[in-house]
Design a protein that fits this description.
The complex is a heterodimer of chains A (about 280) and B (about 80).
Chain A (H helix, E strand, L loop, with lengths): L1 H8 L3 H18 L3 H15 L1 H16 L1 H10 L4 H14 L8 H5 L1 H17 L26 H21 L5 H18 L4 H24 L7 H16 L16 H14 L1
Helix pairs in contact in A: 2-3, 2-8, 3-11, 4-13, 5-6, 9-10, 9-11
Chain B lengths: L6 H15 L1 H4 L6 E2 L2 H27 L7 E2 L4
Parallel strand pairs in B: 1-2
Helix pairs in contact in B: 1-3
Chain lengths: ~280, ~80
């Protein structure tokens, strides 16, 4: 049994060691407590992922412009989910839309999560002399290596986790299908029972990463206007008579929208920015 | 493929299911492709076995990044 555990753990040990080194650095060199080291590590990791997430938020806002057409497709193929999905994907491709969500940035968070899990388990199992310093956080969490529900402060952590998870879902999946969105909103309520058995430090990581997501969403929303709306009235007032006859040729039901022209240059600029960082 | 040759592929499918009920459920996300990455992995593993199906699933995951376009992308 022990051998099996060792075999399973061996590919994960480098991850655990790396996490331990990062935490050690924050703890020993910077002088943070272990709990704050977790927060700092999480923030550092999210900062590295900023180019990825900013791109996601941009494309999500881009997607919102096409919401009416997408709703129409959803209505048209209401009975056949499969067909509806296929048609939506086709619509994305035709209009050069890049759907917000993608699997890779999320996958990049798994190693951090798993490494932190093993590190905290190590903290719980090894003698305290191996990790000198307090494991407590802000007076209400006695030890980040203990199960979250083994002390009253853990329940506060869980409440913050649920709230922050819901808020970040609101920000990150604004365009997802309604059913799915509702499911994602309910998910933390179910998972809180699983998470309750994890070490409190993991919940701390989750809280931090969720709050970062929310903050990032708020900032990018404020900094970047949703649509190139100011361009539309300009053009229609100047060139209205010329453009009017062309309209029927364009896809019907969208007389006011012509976002295709302003959209591409914005995209190019964004790509460059992301690449430079 | 048939018989015993399918078994490794089914092991892979089992791993995808394990992912779905654990990490996949903890980090909810919507995939930009249809079928989604995990569904694609299951189909590829069933059709092409562990090695080729696994490689196909890995390549799909790499394509599922913020710079790609997503869309309808079935297992061939």
């Amino acid at each position: 049994m022990i051998h099996l555990a060792l075999i399973l753990a061996s590919p994960l040990t480098p991850l655990e060691h790396a996490m331990r080194h990062v935490l050690d650095w924050f703890h020993t060199t910077i002088g943070l407590s272990w709990a704050w080291s977790i927060v700092a590590t999480t923030v550092a990791a999210r900062m590295l992922l900023v180019p990825l997430t900013v791109k996601q938020i941009h494309s999500m806002q881009n997607l919102q412009r096409f919401a009416p057409q997408m709703k129409e497709i959803q209505k048209k193929y209401k009975s056949d989910k499969q067909k509806q999905n296929e048609e939506l994907m086709k619509f994305y491709r035709e209009n050069n839309i890049n759907p917000a969500a993608s699997c890779l940035p999320m996958l990049l968070q798994f190693p951090i999560f798993i490494a932190l899990y093993y590190t905290l388990r190590g903290f719980a199992n090894e003698p305290a002399s191996k990790h000198p310093g307090s494991l407590s956080w802000l007076h209400f969490v006695p030890s980040i290596a203990d199960h979250t529900t083994s002390f009253w402060g853990g329940y506060i952590l869980l409440v913050i986790y649920v709230a922050s998870q819901m808020a970040s879902t609101l920000f990150m999946s604004a365009t997802a299908d309604k059913m799915q969105r509702r499911l994602f909103m309910v998910m933390p309520l179910i998972f809180v029972f699983v998470i309750a058995r994890f070490p409190a430090g993991l919940v701390l990581y989750w809280m931090t990463t969720n709050l970062w997501t929310v903050g990032q969403g708020l900032i990018t929303r404020r900094l970047i206007p949703k649509t190139p709306v100011p361009e539309l009235p300009k053009r229609s007032s100047r060139a209205a008579p010329k453009e009017q006859p062309e309209e029927p040729a364009a896809p019907a039901a969208e007389p006011e929208r012509q976002p295709k022209q302003p959209a591409p240059p914005r995209k190019v600029r964004r790509k460059k920015r992301a690449g430079r960082r | 493929m048939s018989g015993a040759a399918r078994i490794p592929g089914y092991l892979g499918v089992g791993l995808v299911w394990l992912y779905r009920v654990t990490l996949g459920a903890l980090f909810p996300t919507t995939c930009k492709y249809h079928p989604s990455c995990s569904e694609y992995a299951v189909q590829a593993l069933r059709k092409h076995g562990l090695v080729r199906g696994g490689l196909m699933a890995g390549w799909r995951l790499l394509r599922c990044n913020p710079w790609s376009h997503g869309g309808f992308d079935p297992v061939r």
